[in-house]
Each structure stands twice: as structure tokens, then as C-alpha cells.
Recover the amino acids of this structure.
């Protein structure tokens, strides 16, 4: 774990709070403009909403009718990300389909709004739609093709962080801001707690950027600032195989269960939208009612979903900024909110970047960085729209060398040209840890060494280990052995393994019937029965 | 097709029931769908590892009396459990299975993660101990085959060190494994076990073990020996020239393959019939008796027997099915003991006692199945399909399989 959480100096140009995509993007932009950057994340990178969304590279079409500003931002960023983050994106294109129960007149409104926002929206014959996307409901009466795609938010975040580090940024996981240090109406730094060791430390910078997503409201509160957020829970279901090859949306006003995104070997159906109390944002559970709603709507678009095993259910919280009393949050703009607290609250040295969405993270980062630069009188132009991210900055080699074709292809989907850093020289390095996601020992070792990995959940987010149809049935044991070999204490590694499997189970529990229940029973048989693991692992 | 008894299933309970019936001279057929839980075998047979309060059980017979009335052991009574345990030992010897263990005193098996778990019988060449705080050896060589990930040598070594046994780690590189590992998906226990059937590979391994093992008193190996009979087991023990013990690996379990193949041989020797690839679809019940069953692989044939035994397992084996509307037994539509809505079948923590583990078909005390509240006179249910106990929390899964199988066979 050579590059994880290494000791850091105390003085920076900017401190960024939050290791989601917004924080990672801001760290990259600041570092590229020559700033000395510290990024702190209280748990793991992508722990919040970044790791709990659709993985959809929106064309913006979804918002064209209701939120023109967001739609325009989306299509602009869509085109940029295709250039700078090629390795994180699968260019699938998307369909907006009209079902017999939907109003076909909406299609014209939709296409007109898309065109106004600069989004290519081509009406195609429903028969053609069924040919290019065979999973779609054969009774559709309308179809529009748009430039939607699938994007891997985990890979995207890591690529931004790697580039920030390349330009000198220090990035820390498991470091939580416990206090904003305020002197003379100015935030001058942060007090940090290491959540693994409990150790307290401090870091200082003339500007601190609050990029903590929905948790940003709690961060701001530490300085007595009120940001009125609207925590909108969005639930999703993951299906055990890739049912569709194009993103499929309903051509109607945004509602529940109307987007199905192919994500490598699985498909993701979402979402719901319900306001949740801020006190519950750390404890999101998908309810049986949400599962029922999602399935009911999803099956209408893609009937095969009714016969496909659901792998897990999960929920994220959108960091919407409250504007009216819309109970679901559906009509709140997904637009970017960048707050200079000097102007807003009379507190210097503190910026909040929030609202927005995964799609517009780069633009959010740009706006936040512009403001940081302005505050510290730094001149520098934003280059993130043109500089490719690590992994997308080099061509993939034509020859594969010693790596096996299967693991190589999978690794390239996750790491792009950085795959060259993965060593698969020995028989062990070539062995496959996760057979669903084709992740090798070599890839695990690379992640452990280079990508801030201290536990199995970190490893899952960096390599997708345990995310496929088996949900960690055997690969988690194998990966735990590797962490143990890499220096983890055996007892701690076993405790981590039980915690990891328990976390996997939490996503299965809302859908624990049918084949999911059978799989869960088999998993428990292996872990508790055969291997003898239990929750009080440390005592044995 | 007509038999005295049709057993539906191919796991531990089915095969034990088949053997007991065949040895009584019954014309018995096992209708086996495909793979079974033998794939996940630990190499041990558990009788009762923990009581219902979660305390470790030393003498299973002392604890069986305190189990709740719904437990299959309570249904048959402790005397019958003892009788069946003795009968099982005879069958195992007849199958040429060497076990360590005693039904009146649990010992400990070592899991693939190095954890000790109380059990009844363990294959006698596997690592066991009577004392959970120490092992019978002070110095051991812990061998793994380089690139084989399903053996957690580091966890096992840490556990052994805690029990006062020093481990010499030997990560053995086998030249011949290169070919195998050129396809990264096949480094699984079965493939490695097949490789061990090659004398050249096995000798190479033994030679490298000998030169790396130092002064170890015992050589511990991943359980990838004994795939087809005891041949490789005998050879590795012979070549290493030091006592050899196996530790089970992640699935598929070679121990399970050893157990199953020997039990199958005995079943066939006793005159039993295997109907492999059998997909039993449904059964015809008239006047509280099963008249015949239908199977996909025997189209347009009624399969007839005096008695039927249902040994199709729990959810994971397809013996029970569930959806949001409830839980069903798919072949006969038997009464299933379960409670609540799907959201109430499980608990938040994976390692808590899961209510669904106790769901299963309802039976009377003689394990007759029940449909619409009526006892089916010639249909018995055995093994994991039974309700009334949590086999993971009690560590009694294989025990219940064996005991109910023999109990039912004796009743016929």
C-alpha cells in the first residue's frame, strides 16, 4: 500500500473536501492549474452518490423538456467526456421509447426540445428500434435515438485522482473533516480525523472547497452556514446479465423506473426519487415498495427483466439544492450551484460546489477552480476539457504481451492504457480472482499498490471484483487472501471479509426471493457453513 | 417403470437412503437432477455442532434432548439418532470411507479459512484436532500450488501459529501447470486435482515438498487429491514420506467428490439404480398416496413405486421455490412451513440466524410429507428440504441428512 495515505505537509493552496467525482475533478483541475492540492475523503473514494447511480452518460435528452439548462450542460459535457475519458465510456447510444400507454404527441415536444438544446434526436421506426435493440418491448409505438452512453463512475473518479496526483495533489481516504478552522471570518484550514486510526491532524490553505455532495450541507454547518439541500433518494436495481445493449428510456416526463443502462456485464434499472430526511442519508435502504415500482415500470420497457435475476438493489442520494416544495425533487434543476460563501455569508476562504450531476462534474470542477484561482489571484486557464485523463491519454498497445486475452480486455475496460502498469508475469499473477469480472491477481496487486486500497470494498470499487453475478461468492475469499499476503493482519482480513460479504448481502436483501434467495443461501453456506466465518470474527 | 422406492435427489440424504434401502433388498432408484451439495462439502459430517443458544456442543447426544420439538432429531427421538449414527458408521465402512470421529464426542475440523468448527466425522486424512487450542503437531509444512487461489494458506498459517504450530510455507511451482494456467479460468480445485493424476506432476510436487519442508512433522496440502478413488491420496502420502494431512479448499470440493463416488459405488453394489439427469416435474396423488411421478427425461412414462422419498434440498438446490407471493415445493405442491412476507424471511445481518433457513416442507414425526393438511402415506421428505431447524447455526446439515435418510429407510 505504498501510495496510500502517505504523510502530508500542512500547507496547501486549496483543500478539497469529498472524494466523489466532484472532488476528484476539482482536485485534478486545481492541480493542473499549478495549485498545491489536498483532497480529503472521510471513507473511500466514490463512497457516496458517485458510486450509487446509473452510470449513465446522459445526452441531456432526459432533461430537454423540463430543464433546458441541464440538458445543454449534459450534451456539452457528453461530447467532452467522450474525448477525455474514452476508457470509462461505452458508446452504446440510447433510445427514448413510447409505449402504447404513453402519449405519442410528447415525442414531438421531446425532439423539438432536444434540438433546441443541441442534442441529436432522430425519430426512428419502432420496427427499426426493435432490430437495433432486441430487448425492447415489441409493442412500442415510437422511438427516438439519442447519444446516451454508459460510463463507469468508479474508473472515472480514479482517473481524475490519478491525474491530480500526477500533478502533485495529495489525496487521502478515511480522513474526515471534523472542524473547519475559522479565523477572522475566514476558513483557514481543516481539522481532520483519520477514521482508521482515530488520529487527529490539521491542514491549512487559503481556500477550502466543499465538494461533499449531499453531505456538504453538514460540512457547511460546521462553519455555521446553512445550505438548504434537498436529499432525493434514488433507488436502482442491478440485473444479473446484460439485458440490453443500448440505454433505454421512456419518452415521457421523467418518472420512476424509466431508464435501463447496460453496464459491462449487467444492466441497471432506475430510478425512484423521494425526499429523505438529512439524518438518514448515511443509511439508505431500498424498500420493497420501491422494488415493486421499479420492476413494474422496467418490465414495461423491457419484458425480459421479469425473467432475469436481480443481483442487488441500492440507493444513492442526489445533492439537489432546494428551490421549492416539490415533494419528489423531480422538478428541481440538476443545474450546478457554486457558492462563494464570502459573498453569500461573509465567510472568506470557503466555497461550496454542489447540485449538478455525474455528467457535469467536470464543469462543476471548472467553476469551483475558477473561483479558487480568483480568490488566491492565480492566473491559469482550465485545460480539463481538452487534456485526456490517464488511461485515455495513450493508445492501447496492439500486442498483448504476456497477459491473457480475457483478463487484458477486462482490465483495459477498467484502466484503459494504464493497464500497462498491471504485471502478469507469474502464473499466480495471471490467475483469475473474479471470474465474473475477469479480474486477475495482477490487477488486484496493481490496485492494492497504486489505487488507495486498504480493504475489500476499496478493491471492489477499483476492480469491480465481487460486483458480477456471483456477488463475491468465491472471489472475495481469494481477494481477502491477497490483502492478507500484502500485509494485512489475518484476523483483520477475515473481519474485513465478513464485513464485505455482509455489505453485499444488504444489497440482496430487498430482493431476497426467487433465485436471489437461492443464491444468498448458497453464499451463506460457503461463508458460514464451509468456511466457518461469523460476525464476531475477531474473537475466534 | 416400476420400483419399490423412488428417491428424488442426489445429495447426502438421497444416497444414504438409497444405500440403506438397497441393502434391505429393496428395488430402489435415485432420480438425480445434476450436481448436489457434495460440491460444497467440508470433508466432514456434522451431527450437531452448536445448541439452539449458540453454545458449542461437546457431546451431541447430551444436546439433542434439548432441541426444540420441530427439529428432525426431536421428531425421531434421541434413541433413533443414536441407532442411525451407528448404522451410518457401518455404511461408511462398507463404502471404504475412513473417518475420524465419534458420535458421542465432537472434534474440530479446519475450515478453508483456518477456523475450527465442531463436527462428528472427518475424512481421516484431513486436519482435525480434539483440542481447539492446540494442534497435534508443533511444526508443519503448509504447501500450496503456485497460482491456485482457492487455498488460503496465509489464513491457515496464522490460525495454526495461534495454536502453537509453526508453519513452513511452501509455495510450490509446478512446471507442468503452465499449460493449465494459460487459461486463467481453470485454476480450480477440480482441474488441479486432475493434474495430480499425472504421475510425473505428482512426483514433481512430492520432490519439491520434500526439499522445502524442513523438519516438519506433518505436511499439509490443499485437498486436491482423491478425485477418482484413493490413488493420488496414497501416492502423495507415499512419496512425501512424512504424514500428510489435507485442508479443504474453496468449492468445488474434492472431498465431496471422494465421498459421493464411494457412496455411489456402494449403492450400485447393493443393487441400486441411478437415473441421472432426471428432471422430476410432478407427481400424481390419489387418496393421500403418490401413484406415480413424471420426469422430463422420461416423456410419456409414468414412474411408479410403492414409496417415494423427496430429497430435493432447500432453496439453493431447487427443492423449495420462492417468490413474493410465498414459498412452494415445486414437484408435489406440499405444505411448506414458513411465515410472513418475503421482506420478513431474512435478517439485516448476513451472519444472523436467517428465518428462511428454517423453512421447509412440513412432515409428521415419521417424516411423511403433508399436502393440504393431509399426510401422504407413501411420500417421505428427508435432508435439507425439512423445516424446523437452522442447519448453519446448529451445524447439523449433513447430520440431519444422514439421520433422516436412515430413519425413513428403516421405516419402510
Amino acid at each position: 500500500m505504498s501510495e496510500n495515505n502517505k504523510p502530508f505537509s500542512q500547507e496547501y493552496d486549496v483543500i478539497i473536501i469529498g472524494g466523489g467525482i466532484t472532488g476528484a475533478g476539482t482536485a485534478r483541475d486545481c492541480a493542473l492549474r499549478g495549485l498545491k492540492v489536498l483532497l480529503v475523503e472521510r471513507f473511500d473514494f466514490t463512497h457516496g452518490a458517485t458510486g450509487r447511480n446509473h452510470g449513465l452518460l446522459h445526452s441531456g435528452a432526459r432533461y430537454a423538456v423540463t430543464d433546458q439548462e441541464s440538458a445543454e450542460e449534459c450534451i456539452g459535457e457528453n461530447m467532452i467526456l467522450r474525448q477525455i475519458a474514452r476508457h470509462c465510456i461505452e458508446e452504446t447510444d440510447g433510445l427514448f421509447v413510447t409505449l402504447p400507454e404513453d402519449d405519442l404527441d410528447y415525442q414531438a415536444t421531446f425532439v423539438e426540445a432536444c434540438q433546441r438544446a443541441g442534442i441529436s434526436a432522430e425519430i426512428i421506426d419502432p420496427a427499426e428500434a426493435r432490430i437495433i435493440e432486441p430487448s425492447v418491448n415489441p409493442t412500442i409505438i415510437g422511438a427516438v435515438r439519442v447519444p446516451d452512453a454508459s460510463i463507469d463512475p468508479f474508473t472515472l473518479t480514479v482517473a481524475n485522482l490519478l491525474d491530480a496526483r500526477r500533478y502533485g495533489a495529495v489525496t487521502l481516504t478515511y480522513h474526515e473533516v471534523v472542524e473547519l478552522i475559522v479565523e477572522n471570518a475566514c476558513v483557514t484550514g481543516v481539522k481532520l480525523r483519520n477514521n482508521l486510526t482515530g488520529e487527529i491532524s490539521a491542514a491549512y490553505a487559503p481556500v477550502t472547497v466543499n465538494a461533499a455532495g449531499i453531505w456538504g450541507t453538514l460540512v457547511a454547518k460546521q462553519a455555521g452556514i446553512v445550505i438548504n439541500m434537498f436529499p432525493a433518494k434514488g433507488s436502482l436495481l442491478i440485473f444479473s446479465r446484460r439485458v440490453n445493449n443500448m440505454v433505454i428510456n421512456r419518452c415521457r416526463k421523467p418518472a420512476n423506473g424509466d431508464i435501463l443502462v447496460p453496464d459491462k456485464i449487467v444492466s441497471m434499472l432506475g430510478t425512484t426519487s423521494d425526499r429523505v430526511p438529512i439524518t438518514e442519508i448515511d443509511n439508505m435502504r431500498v424498500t420493497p415498495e420501491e422494488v415493486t415500482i421499479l420492476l413494474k415500470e422496467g418490465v414495461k420497457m423491457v419484458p425480459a427483466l421479469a425473467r432475469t435475476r436481480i443481483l442487488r438493489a441500492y440507493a444513492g442520494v442526489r445533492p439537489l439544492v432546494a428551490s421549492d416544495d416539490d415533494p419528489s425533487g423531480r422538478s428541481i434543476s440538476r443545474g450546478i450551484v457554486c457558492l462563494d460563501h464570502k459573498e453569500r455569508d461573509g465567510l472568506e476562504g470557503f466555497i461550496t460546489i454542489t447540485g449538478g450531476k455525474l455528467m457535469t462534474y467536470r464543469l462543476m470542477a471548472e467553476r469551483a477552480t475558477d473561483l479558487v484561482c480568483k480568490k488566491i489571484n492565480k492566473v491559469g486557464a482550465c485545460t480539463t476539457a481538452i487534456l485526456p485523463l490517464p488511461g485515455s491519454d495513450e493508445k492501447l498497445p496492439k500486442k498483448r504481451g504476456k497477459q491473457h486475452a480475457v483478463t487484458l480486455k477486462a482490465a483495459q475496460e477498467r484502466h484503459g492504457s494504464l493497464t500497462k502498469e498491471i504485471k502478469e508475469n507469474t502464473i499466480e499473477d495471471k490467475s483469475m480472482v473474479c471470474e465474473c469480472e475477469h479480474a486477475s491477481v495482477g490487477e488486484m496487486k496493481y490496485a492494492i499498490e497504486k489505487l488507495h486500497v486498504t480493504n475489500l470494498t476499496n478493491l471492489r470499487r477499483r476492480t469491480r471484483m465481487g460486483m458480477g453475478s456471483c456477488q463475491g461468492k468465491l472471489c472475495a475469499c481469494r481477494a481477502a487472501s491477497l490483502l492478507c499476503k500484502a500485509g494485512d493482519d489475518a484476523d483483520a482480513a477475515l473481519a474485513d471479509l465478513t464485513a464485505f460479504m455482509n455489505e453485499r448481502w444488504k444489497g440482496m436483501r430487498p430482493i431476497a426471493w426467487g433465485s436471489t434467495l437461492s443464491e444468498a443461501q448458497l453464499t451463506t453456506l460457503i461463508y458460514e457453513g464451509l468456511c466457518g466465518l461469523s460476525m464476531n470474527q475477531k474473537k475466534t | 417403470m416400476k420400483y419399490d422406492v423412488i428417491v428424488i435427489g442426489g445429495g447426502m440424504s438421497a444416497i444414504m437412503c438409497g444405500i440403506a434401502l438397497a441393502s434391505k433388498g429393496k428395488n430402489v432408484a435415485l432420480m438425480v437432477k445434476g450436481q448436489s451439495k457434495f460440491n460444497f462439502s467440508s470433508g466432514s459430517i456434522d451431527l450437531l455442532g452448536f445448541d439452539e443458544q449458540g453454545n458449542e456442543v461437546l457431546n451431541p447426544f447430551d444436546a439433542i434432548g434439548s432441541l426444540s420439538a420441530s427439529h428432525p432429531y426431536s421428531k425421531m427421538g434421541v434413541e433413533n439418532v443414536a441407532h442411525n449414527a451407528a448404522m451410518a458408521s457401518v455404511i461408511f465402512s462398507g463404502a471404504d470411507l475412513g473417518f475420524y470421529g465419534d458420535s458421542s464426542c465432537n472434534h474440530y475440523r479446519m475450515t478453508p479459512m483456518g477456523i475450527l468448527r465442531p463436527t462428528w466425522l472427518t475424512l481421516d486424512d484431513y486436519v482435525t484436532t480434539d483440542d481447539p487450542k492446540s494442534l497435534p503437531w508443533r511444526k508443519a509444512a503448509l504447501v500450496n500450488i503456485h497460482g491456485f487461489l482457492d487455498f488460503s494458506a496465509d489464513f491457515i498459517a496464522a490460525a495454526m501459529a495461534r495454536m502453537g504450530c509453526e508453519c513452513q510455507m511452501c509455495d510450490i511451482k509446478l512446471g507442468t501447470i503452465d499449460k493449465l494456467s494459460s487459461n486463467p479460468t481453470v485454476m480450480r480445485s477440480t482441474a488441479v486435482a486432475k493434474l495430480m493424476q499425472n504421475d510425473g506432476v505428482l512426483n514433481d510436487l512430492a520432490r519439491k515438498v520434500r526439499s522445502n519442508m524442513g523438519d516438519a512433522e506433518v505436511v499439509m496440502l490443499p485437498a486436491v487429491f482423491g478425485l477418482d478413488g484413493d490413488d493420488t491420496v496414497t501416492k502423495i502420502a507415499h512419496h512425501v514420506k512424512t504424514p500428510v494431512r489435507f485442508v479443504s479448499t474453496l468449492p468445488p470440493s474434492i472431498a465431496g467428490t471422494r465421498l459421493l463416488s464411494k457412496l455411489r459405488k456402494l449403492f450400485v453394489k447393493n443393487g441400486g439404480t441411478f437415473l441421472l439427469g432426471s428432471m422430476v416435474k410432478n407427481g400424481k396423488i390419489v387418496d393421500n398416496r403418490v401413484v406415480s411421478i413424471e420426469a422430463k427425461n422420461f416423456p410419456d412414462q409414468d414412474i411408479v413405486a410403492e414409496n417415494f422419498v423427496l430429497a430435493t434440498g432447500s432453496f439453493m438446490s431447487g427443492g423449495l421455490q420462492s417468490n413474493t407471493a410465498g414459498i412452494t415445493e415445486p414437484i408435489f405442491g406440499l405444505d411448506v412451513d414458513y411465515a410472513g412476507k418475503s421482506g420478513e424471511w431474512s435478517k439485516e445481518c448476513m451472519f444472523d440466524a436467517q428465518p428462511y433457513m428454517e423453512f421447509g416442507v412440513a412432515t409428521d414425526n415419521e417424516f411423511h410429507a403433508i399436502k393440504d393438511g393431509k399426510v401422504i402415506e407413501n411420500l417421505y421428505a428427508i435432508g435439507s428440504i425439512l423445516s424446523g431447524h437452522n442447519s448453519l447455526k446448529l451445524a447439523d446439515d449433513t447430520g440431519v441428512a444422514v439421520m433422516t435418510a436412515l430413519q425413513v429407510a428403516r421405516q419402510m
Observations:
- The radius of gyration of chain A is 23 Å.
- The longest strand of chain A covers residues 310-321.
- Residues 490-508 of chain A form the longest helix (19 residues).
- Residues 405-539 of chain A form one domain.
